[in-house]
Amino acid sequence: MVKTLEDRINPSSTNDSVLSTQEYFVNMGPQHPSTHGVLRLVLKLDGETVREVIPVLGYIHRGMEKKAETIGYRQQIHLTDRLDYLCSVMNNWVSAEVVEKAAKIESNERIQTIRTIVAELQRIQSHLLWWGVFGMDLGAFTPFLYGFRDREKITKIFEDTIGARLTMNYIQPGGLMYDIHPDFVKDVKSFLTYIKPLFAEYDGLVTGNIIIQERLRNVGIMDAKTAIALGTTGPVLRASGVAHDLRKIKPYGVYSKVDFAIPIGTVGDCWDRYAVRMLEMRESVKIVEQLIDNVPEGKHLTMKAGAKIRPPAGVYYEEMETARGIFGVMINSDGTEKPSRVYYRTPNFHNIWSITKISPGGRIGDLVAIMSSLDIVVPDMDR
Amino acid sequence: MSTPSISQDIMTNLGNSPGISLALFLGGLIGAVAFMAIAGLILIYAERKICAHFQCRLGPMRVGWHGILQSVADTIKLLMKEDIVPYAADKFMHALAPIVALAAALMTLIAIPMSAKITLADSNIGVLYISAISGIGVLGILLGGWSSNNKWSMLGAMRAGAQIISYELSATLSILAIVMLSGSLKISTIIQSQEAGWWIWRAPVVGLVAFLSFLISSTAEVNRTPFDLAEGESELAAGFHTEYSGMRFAFFFLAEYLNLFIVSALGATLFLGGWMPFHLGEWTMFNQIMDLIPQSIWFLGKTSFMIFVSMWFRWTFPRLRVDQLMKLEWKVLLPIGFVNLLLCAFMTLFGFYFFSTTTRGF
Q1: A45 and A81 fall within a common domain
Q2: Domain total for chain B?
Q3: Are residues A52 and A115 in the same domain?
Q4: Residue-wise pLDDT tens digits, A10-56
Q5: I need a labelling partner for A381 at 20 to 30 A (CA). Which of A248, B223, B350, B360 fits?
Q6: Closest CA–CA distance from residue B317 to any residue of chain A (Å)
Q7: Chain B interface, mutation test: which of A48, A269, A368, most B Cβ atoms within 10 Å?
Q8: What is the ipTM of this complex?
Q9: What is the pLDDT of residue B357?
Q10: A169 SS3 class
Q11: Does B201 touch chain A (CB under 8 A)?
């Protein structure tokens, strides 16, 4: 019916009855507390009820893919930190892995084990931050501080080993930037004993709360078919009942050696998305527990640091499961030191579009809950 | 309140000796304004400290001992800030709104007795006066939201209007239960009627139900979590005061905290005996020991307890959704309130409450 944004913003009212409501448009964002950065949503509202949501992206577009083409294979790793900054190590891993596959750089058991441990720690860290922010979006402030308090412990471990707290640049083609800190194993173990009783505390503060349950149950229902059709991945897809997790389907790292479950939802509402992430944290703790006791000995870097990488010409693609879904990197090599084309398949870009399908009909409060349950990171969408 | 021995009933005193009474009244008003400013600062500081300790942090620590002067520093900052009025705003209404909100809070404050002596205005329709005047506060919010010419502000204001008017019903129903039990609308009489014990426990079940209903609806009336939909910063940016800055914002902020104080004081007065010490029927010895604690300490203690409970709510609960909010009021609290009022009427008629003989005849 209407084709452009401008048409929608000036709706011609044909309803001339005396008692009628008029639909109106508001901009949610790019500066809005719950759009988690600079996402802009154009909302068509009828009173409090959301009729239509139009996400408008591009406010933090930095041309990451083009930048990656102008620098070498080794340097483009650093750009992936800045996509989904809460999964920086996992993003590093994918872009390092694709280069390793392309240039046939070998790896060893120690490297793969440490990569897996760090990635799982980061999954816990990312989910903890999401949990805090989720509480805040629903109007509870305290979980935010609790989440950050416990996230800080992991950040400290990363700071010791990696030297950075957010954009870590840890994994590089052929290994790791640095070997683990001498206290790494001890610190991780003490963190695991620290975090395990805290899950019960989180449940006591948020999960069991009647208001939370009322706000989340049967809100933003997305069935499996829609979820697959929209290309959602990660916890959002699994909450809709699809047991799709690359750690199980296409095991990488040392995931094939560890025992863990994939939590899946049944309804696909906000509550399922909440529950899936809360259970995933427990599974990640299990994975780290199984690996931390026997980190194999060996070198942390199999190739000469800083050596030029020239993969043979061809198209290479690698994908992995980050905390928000599948992050994939495609590299088109022409045999030189720089890729001729780089494409990042970022999970949030695909997940966000589900908001256009599942939020109409709900209230503004529901929209905020849905958006938060999708766990969006805006720099990841815009690249 | 710092001003000592203000006349108990202005109206009669004004008749007796106009000069002195007028002076006392004006002194009381100035005292009330001073109290308002100080109470606001203390409450904001208390909230920040309490919230900090709920959240495993320290809160303000830098300005003064344990950050005790933080509120003063913030006030100075707010006073010095540029006052921005949106270009398309209704300038007059935009300026008027914070004043209306604050004035409503101040007008309510003068009707609440702090002790038998410190009473600014003890009208014989005190409870009615408080219910009526506190309703004006919503006018300030509606005005502020509408005049800002911002859709988020407007949404916040409409939410606040619907919410406060709805919850006023439940609050009034629970107040009516106490009015019925004590047989008076005069606040000093209501406090006197609790000499043998506070209504929360003396009227079995109905007192407690009325208290809980009042607690919930008063939290909703002052727009605090879990009912802070009018501000709902994750949904509406900042709700009705999105377009306010500087001292006008501070007025809204202060009015919010004063309203918190007022509803807590009102709850303490109606259900927990106000300045009346903890008494147990005719246990004279026990009652005399309790009387040793000054009345104003009892009043402030009970009020602080109520305020603490409200802050506890705020830093624990998430926010309700707008339709759940309305459902809670119209489908749950209101029917309970009506049934409770009916039970209360029977109880009052047949004297089915503890120590009923000592208080008959009001």
Answers
A1: no
A2: 1
A3: no
A4: 555 444 555 667 788 888 878 887 777 788 888 888 878 888 898 88
A5: A248
A6: 6
A7: A48
A8: 0.78
A9: 58
A10: coil
A11: no
The residue behind tokens 């969006």 is A376
- Same-domain status, A47 and A147: no
Domain count, chain A: 2
Q: What is the pLDDT of residues B330-339, one digit of tens each?
A: 999 999 999 9
CATH of the domain at A177: 1.10.645.10
DSSP state at residue A273: H
CB contact under 8 A, A215 and B233: no
Q: A20, A37, A56: which is the final residue of a domain?
A: A56
Strand bridging mode A171-172 / A341-345: unpaired
Whether B334 is covered by a domain: the verdict is yes
Q: Do A206 and B51 touch (CB under 8 A)?
A: no
pLDDT tens for each residue of A249-288: 888 888 888 888 889 888 888 999 999 999 999 999 999 9
Candidate from A33, A142, A363 with C-beta closest to B322: A363
The answer to whether position B62 is within a domain reads no
A40 shares a domain with A172: no
Across the interface, whether the CB atoms of A139 and B237 are under 8 A apart is answered no
Q: pLDDT category, B8, cuts 50, 70, 90?
A: very low
Would strands A40-46 and A175-176 be described as parallel, antiparallel, or unpaired?
unpaired
Asked which of A111-120, B226-235, B255-264 is least confident by mean pLDDT, the reply is B226-235
Cα distance between residue B25 and residue B345, in whole Å: 37
CA distance A40 to B250: 30
Surface of A (213-242) touching B: CB under 8 A? 214-215
Last residue of a domain, one of A20, A39, A56: A56
H or E element at residue A331: strand A325-333
| Structure-block tokens of residue A311 | 């993969």
pLDDT of residue B335: 92
**Domain range for residue A18?**
5-56
pLDDT one-digit tens code per residue, A151-204? 999 999 998 888 888 888 888 888 888 888 888 888 999 999 999 888 888 888
Segment B83-96, tens digit of pLDDT: 888 888 888 888 88
A188 and A142, same structural domain? yes
For residues B127 and B193, is the Cβ–Cβ distance under 8 A?
A: no
Which range marks the domain in which residue B105 is found?
Answer: 81-359
> Does residue A154 contact residue A125 with C-beta atoms inside 8 Å?
yes
pTM: 0.84
- Tell me whether residue B115 is in a domain: yes
Residue B245 lies in a domain: yes
